[in-house]
């Protein structure tokens, strides 16, 4: 890291109707540093990076890159100044080869693309990065970790000076995170500035040089990573004292609620477990181990090939999702925005959609009941919104997740599947979701929870089923909980 | 133009176009505002207003139906043949025709849902098939001379109002009611808003798709009854360009392709815009070929305004 400032933001503001997404923001980024941006969802991080990348135009302020001042940038200008962004949703064409993706959008001299030369150039970049990626293989056949490396290679091929990474470790497994960090450090040594956005505070201590905290669209503070700690950062983010722990609850396991025997289908094989009343049964494993697939089968969203499901001891066959809901099984899907909420519909609409038949008479929706249900859940789940008519798409991640929970609870479910309950949810809302889960089990509900967040898995579960490559690697009772033990089972080392 | 204008346009865009078209003809054409002429406008839009109600459901559910014209042609021939050749009583013929319409619609929906192919392509196929069948069966000859009692649906009056307009009003009301008041309506929006989320929210999307197209078939067959009674003849081409006329009206009314938004009022306004435009241009002496050009430009204008408005709302 040098002391040279490469990117300077001065008084930058961006307003949307009713919201100041960022508000007179000023900060500096140095050449060759890993500069983390930290803030709850809705703090304005995304808006800031979009302004820097030229994807949106700020209303006020100046962006200065390598000494050149801009009041707003076009995506083209940003690229010319060496700004590259790797968004959470990759910008790759899965059917094309890695090399083709690296040089996508690249102008060619002449009409014909020299595939061979490109392939060789891409290979060189991958070698320089120290990764084993086949430039001629289809991107879509790689795991998300490698897709991310292709994105990085793409940035490198365009002479990146400022690389912005939005939650890069979210889709990665533990080993892959190590690989990513190694590449980030290497780029840093080459003088590339990395702006790093992550909700996982721990990893900042491993990879970051400095960290800037944002809150409600405003700049709070910049700190050297070496001179701060997790608690200080969390306090700065939320602007209030916050106990970041897992709320305890009275565990009182009741009778058997749900049991699966020799469950096979949708990529999982021979799964056996029992869920009790009032229990949170956690599911651990590496990303892609088949946990989500298993949940989808239980919920009736995918076909069961063989095996048997028992509800309260009676064998049942779940025909489809409607059948699952009717039998009291609900699911909060992994991908909230794509499959959880209806973004363009109101909170009220979302809340009752799974219960819509029940609150209708002769096919006509009872508006009064609908309003009551929506008001009840907004209050109970503390969904922060000016009105139930607010579109779900306008809510922060945490509040959206609460809307999905409301939708599932409103359908009178007794067994709720939480697939990654707090992914992309900020620290404050996380706590609230944990407390809600505790309340649910104390009231006699039962929960199946898939989580890739190890502290969450250990902190919330009563027992943990570990899945490895579609098979059950073991069931770990609370007394034997330890990160090492779970990881051990998950990576199939025994 | 300022933010205020666009906010206003976002809410009332289609109303503005309707008002503009209405005012333009009211001010330039003396005959336009006469009650008889205004009633004439409604009578002219009745048939495809009815069909457009069905297409509205399909479009809100995220689909399209290119086959409604073919359905009108085939169903019209079937009903006409039942009454004229086979002397089936009028009420029975109508009932069977409507059942046939529902079945045709359900077939569209079932193929699209089971094969998981975009409805656009499936209904393109059924459009070709139905239009072709109509030509093959009739060899191009029309069936005419429906029973007198049947013609009442297209040509009769109740007091000062044509029966066809009453049917239109009735159908629009039912459409509005089902879409905005029933849980079936909710599920239509869910399906169009996000099909996968709808499935995970416990909605049987295959069944819904079939029902939505079945409903479209139902409304289309009601439109067919009015068409048949009004023209007193069934030909292979009497379905005309209903699919495109309906889509034009629905888009002008402010419902976008992709689904999940809009309501019956949008469709009704769109239908009125097209009706007034056609009527006013005739009064002005503009020929029908030129009318098409103007309709096209108006739709392009409406879509452009909508796109600009959306981009501004997205903050760009």
Lay out the secondary structure:
The complex is a heterodimer of chains A (494) and B (316).
Chain A: E1 5-16, E2 19-30, E3 34-38, H1 45-53, E4 60-65, E5 68-70, H2 75-80, E6 83-86, H3 98-102, H4 115-129, H5 144-157, E7 162-166, H6 174-189, E8 193-197, H7 201-207, E9 210-215, E10 218-224, H8 230-238, E11 256-265, E12 268-276, E13 280-284, H9 291-298, E14 306-311, E15 314-316, H10 321-326, E16 329-332, H11 336-340, H12 347-352, E17 360-361, E18 364-365, H13 367-380, H14 397-410, E19 415-419, H15 427-442, E20 446-450, H16 454-460, E21 463-468, E22 471-477, H17 483-490
Helix pairs in contact in A: 4-5
Chain B: H1 3-28, H2 35-60, H3 68-84, H4 90-115, H5 119-138, E1 143-144, H6 148-155, E2 157-158, E3 161-162, H7 163-181, H8 183-193, H9 195-200, H10 205-231, E4 233-234, H11 242-252, H12 264-284, H13 288-313
Antiparallel strand pairs in B: 1-4, 2-3
Helix pairs in contact in B: 1-12, 1-13, 2-7, 2-8, 2-10, 2-11, 2-12, 3-4, 3-5, 3-10, 4-5, 4-10, 6-10, 7-8, 8-10, 11-12
* β-sheet strand percentage of chain B: under 5%
Helix content of chain B: over 70%
Average pLDDT, all residues of chain B = 90
Apparent shape of chain B = globular
| Overall number of strands of chain A | 22
Uncertain segments of chain A are none
C-alpha-based Rg of chain B, rounded:
20 Å
Q: How far is the first residue's CA from the last residue's CA of chain A?
A: 43 Å
Annotation, overall tally of beta strands of chain B = 4
Biggest sheet strand line-up of chain A: 6-7-8-3-9-10
What is the H/E order of chain B? HHHHHEHEEHHHHEHHH
Structural class of chain B: mainly alpha
Bin the helical content of chain A: 25-40%
Main β-sheet, spatial strand arrangement of chain B: 1-4
Low-confidence stretches of chain B: none
DSSP helix count of chain A? Answer: 17
The greatest interface between two protein chains, and residues involved on each side, is:
A-B, 34 and 23 residues
Largest sheet: number of strands, sense, barrel closure of chain B: 2 strands, antiparallel
